[in-house]
Amino acid sequence: MNYELFLAKRIIAAKQYKSSISSPIIKIAILAIAVGMVVMMIAIATGFGLQQKIREKLSGFNGHIQITNFDNNNSEITLEPVSKNQEFYPEFKNVSDIKNVQVFATKGGIIRTETDFEGIIFKGVAKDYDWTFFEEYLVEGKIPDFYGEVSNDVLISKEISNRLNINLGDKFNILFVKENPSKAPWIRVVKVVGVYNSGFQEFDENFVIADIRHIQKMNRWTEDEVGGFEVLINDFKDIKIKSDEVYTQTASTLNSQSIMDKYPGIFEWISLFDNNIYLIIVIMILVAGINMITALLVLILERTQMIGILKALGSNNVSIRKVFLYNAAYLVLKGLFWGNLIGLTILFIQKYFGVITLNPETYYVSEAPVYLDFWYIILLNIGTLLLCLIMLIIPTLIISKIDPVKSIKFE
Asked: How many CB atoms lie within 10 A of CB 305?
């Protein structure tokens, strides 16, 4: 029989244990572990959630990897066409884990209404386009259908809708300047069939999604000429590897660029979240560990007579230390239980109700996103428990200094 565990259970169940001097200190230690667990879970869930949402939105507007002409054009507007007759289109057979390859083209335009006008990026897509991203953020209407004849249907953002007072079902003019500015611009009358709201203001205030055939006609391209290709991959973690593979599998006249290379500033910024998360975890575990060390020291000093009796009966220091470590493990697990319960409750409330909002101009999202991965939660619990127990080995060393002759007192 494991008598160390038996003694630890008796100590925990004892009434005098709950009303002892160490009781308030133990409660504070449990509270520290619970609060630390809540803070760590929120830091991980919101930090990783924000990273994931920003990556999703960048890839939703640009794809994970873009293949375009090898030129010095660094703008969002495609100038020179690329032939659709490529080995990797419509399916990238030489690179694995590719979700979709879709064509696109962009052109600068000006929306003109009776009272306002505003510059936009007119992004043309075709029937091979993956609408998963825009379906998630669609707030009104439907996704345009570009399968039949040239369509005048467009998808605009809630930002453009509010600023220019253009609503679902409305028709409006878009002006496109010709290469010769002295000539009258092209005018396209389009109809709003859907409104999206991604919360990424930098893109929402600029992009109008439309039929690529409008751009092909204005640029005098053939049906086989497009602005470029967007490549979607299955797992974002592999983006660097897949970007290199895509680059090697494209012609020398073409250039492939991942969104990490296209927007390095944003990705450098969100990578800093990892450092913040690790720092919070270290601080919270240290605070919880120090509180537990204090509680365990008080508990040991409070039980010196019991320790002396156990030594007199033949127990060695290792066995007695196990008794107090079992006791400490119970307290840590109790703190973890309440921390998980409170933390998960807060995270689920935020995930489904979006109580905490953010400034989209700064964070690219309108509310704090939550990423829940139960493997992270399990590893966080196991890591916290093990680290706390390792730290608690130090205060149990005082047991070897207790003299049974001096500690046992008979009344």
From this structure: 14
